[in-house]
Amino acid sequence: MAYTTFLTLIVPAIIAxxxxxxxxxxVMGYMYSSGVVAEDHNKETSNRRKPKILPSxxxxxxxxxxxxxxxxxxxxxxxxAFSPVLNISDLLAVALSITxxxxxxxxxxxxxKSKRIMATGIKDIKQGLKKWQKPLLTVxxxxxxxxxxxxxxxxxxxxxxxxxxxxxxxxxxLPLAVIFVSNAFNLLGGFDGLQPGMAMIASLGxxxxxxxxxxxxxxxxxxxxxxFASLVAFLPFNKYPARIIPGDSFTYAIGAILxxxxxxxxxxxxxxxxxxxxVIEFFxxxxxxxxxxxxxxxxxxxTLAAPYGKSIYSLTHLVMNMGRMREKQVTLYLCLMETGxxxxxxxxxxxxFL
Length: 354
What we know:
Layout: H1 3-34, E1 37-40, E2 52-55, H2 59-78, H3 88-109, E3 112-116, E4 123-126, H4 133-138, H5 143-147, E5 154-157, E6 161-164, H6 168-187, H7 194-212, H8 218-238, H9 247-264, H10 268-274, H11 276-286, E7 297-298, E8 304-305, H12 315-320, H13 327-350
Antiparallel strand pairs: 1-2, 3-4, 5-6, 7-8
Helix pairs in contact: 1-2, 1-8, 2-3, 2-8, 2-9, 3-9, 6-9, 6-11, 7-8, 7-9, 7-13, 8-9, 9-10, 10-13
């Protein structure tokens, strides 16, 4: 990458960081006053029978940052500040994909009703969309990418090599990837800093991947840099003790940009390794037909006990069964797990297995 290309990564990323930070401050107050809230069952309040109430749908702020960063790049190219090295229509298609799927997540976030979750006995104020509606509606995030025939039909499958899927790639594989990644990313959460923390590590891994192995695929590096910058800005608001909950607007948007990075950057094989924790989470949830509580049961000493004893239906259960874990420790261990998968992916690529 040329020096000027690095600048076109850094400047949009800085803008994305600033906008995300400012937008999160606004969204935090606006959502709380509007009643778009969720319960933090891991926290203790003055009334121990009532969980802490936090504003939700913080993902809207992250989307603002991501989209503004993309438009900053497009604006710089249009006024001649630099010569664009990617197709602006591709970038706008990604922006539309993220916006559409974030809107679906926001519809889920604003459906705030009191409902007792039968699997856990916990009364939650966030009901959200029905289970069958989520995968059906998240397919809208794939439509802009399908419209521009994003990606390359030949995918390098780990340990198998290149496989050409032909027409199946844009028509079937791409929408299924958006549905799966966005919904699988939504499964692993419930702990302060967990979702933005793991996503930030994944984005940093993609930045390293594109700089080291694919320096000519600029759009992958740009999207990864914007994702990383936005998450760095958002994490202080969601780290322990959280002041805002990311919500489904966050998880769906991050799922969409992860797919865009893999597809537009021709990094599907590396992405499969990076996304492995969420794939594992999907199959763990599947064992209970997705009727799973990731959260722990708060103990008197502040530690969290796994809700199903020694039975493991989530990676959070696995960590909580390792010892007396507090919320921050659960987040830390899972972030370390994601770091391990990122390093594994980079090593496999360096050794020629991807």
